[in-house]
Amino acid sequence: MPALIQAFLDEASSTYTYVVHETDGGPCAIVDSVLNYDPASGRTDTAQADKVIAFVREHDLHVQWLLETHAHADHLSAAPYLRRLLGGKIAIGASISKVQGVFKHLFNLEPEFRVDGSQFDHLFAPDEVFHIGNLKAQALHVPGHTPADMAYLIDDRLILVGDTLFMPDVGTARCDFPGGDARQLYASMRKLLAFPPQTQLYVCHDYPPEGREAKCLTTVAEQRAGNIHVHDGVDENAFVEMRTTRDAGLGMPTLLLPAIQVNVRAGNLPPAEENGVTYLKIPLNQL
């Protein structure tokens, strides 16, 4: 049977979470889950993740994987919360260790924090094949936005592209975060756009222009014909010049600082201090 995919949009962060499965009563994967976070109060809640839980339970699904496309800078991961209630392995690309090394230094994390990816249950090697029940899946390494970005090819017909590509009228991901590289992103996008034209591409975010509702699904053909940043005919040098210039004028994501220091821990919050309270750090004058 072909893969089924259910999308959940978190409007606050413009993030899509996906549940991928083959049939009711079978295994599934949850991709890029969201833990709601209010930066004004410093409070978290599970409203968005609970929608995913309700769907999983309604369809009697068994969570096999909790997949992250990368360490997100725009939302906190709900993977540990989902694992506690539903099971599954939290997985990300093996290059997360590079991201952890950068941000351990930036946030001066506790000496015990390891930069080997061991906070995650599984680290995917580039092009590693795995399964969601009977569905064949492959972890595609697509660096550029960050060194650890992964896209997930499912059933040889659809790809969860993470932050590598956006909808054609929005373009592509920024590359100015630590470890980002516009030339790597260009190569990663051409890798994805080399798949057959009918291949479905599910984006992690959509920031629709005025007058269009948010969407999550496009195709290789649509991207090659109409992506405003990387349509056919745009060469590497032109893309790098555009992306570098554009990134220089972008502000930092609102949740960058809280999100990264949680997401490099596989979504776990920092250890509580001696008073029993968990704190997030805000490094001053560093970014």
Short description:
The chain is 25% helix and 24% strand. It has 287 residues and is of the alpha/beta class. Helix 4 (182-192) crosses helix 6.
Outline the secondary-structure elements.
Elements: E1 4-10, E2 15-21, E3 27-31, E4 36-38, E5 43-45, H1 47-58, E6 62-67, H2 79-86, E7 89-93, H3 96-107, E8 122-124, E9 128-132, E10 135-141, E11 150-154, E12 158-162, H4 182-192, E13 200-203, E14 217-219, H5 220-226, H6 236-248, H7 256-263
Parallel strand pairs: 3-6, 6-7, 7-8, 12-13
Antiparallel strand pairs: 1-2, 2-3, 4-5, 9-10, 10-11, 11-12, 13-14
Protein name: MBL fold metallo-hydrolase
Keywords: Hydrolase, Metal-binding
Domain Metallo-beta-lactamase: 14-205
Quickly list its features.
287 residues, globular, alpha/beta, single chain, Mito_Persulfide_Diox, metal ion binding, RibonucZ/Hydroxyglut_hydro, 14 strands, metal-binding
Question: How would you describe the overall organization of this protein?
Answer:
It is a single chain. The chain is α/β, with parallel strands linked by helices. It has one domain (4-264): Ribonuclease Z/Hydroxyacylglutathione hydrolase-like (Metallo-beta-lactamase, Chain A, 4-Layer Sandwich), CATH 3.60.15.10. The protein contains seven helices and 14 strands. The protein has helices at 47-58, 79-86, 96-107, 182-192, 220-226, 236-248, 256-263, and strands at residues 4-10, 15-21, 27-31, 36-38, 43-45, 62-67, 89-93, 122-124, 128-132, 135-141, 150-154, 158-162, 200-203, 217-219. It has a six-stranded mixed beta sheet with strand order 1-2-3-6-7-8, with helices on one face. Strand 11 and strand 12 form a beta hairpin. Helix 4 packs across helix 6. The longest helix has 13 residues, at 236-248. The chain starts with a strand and ends in a 24-residue tail after the last helix.
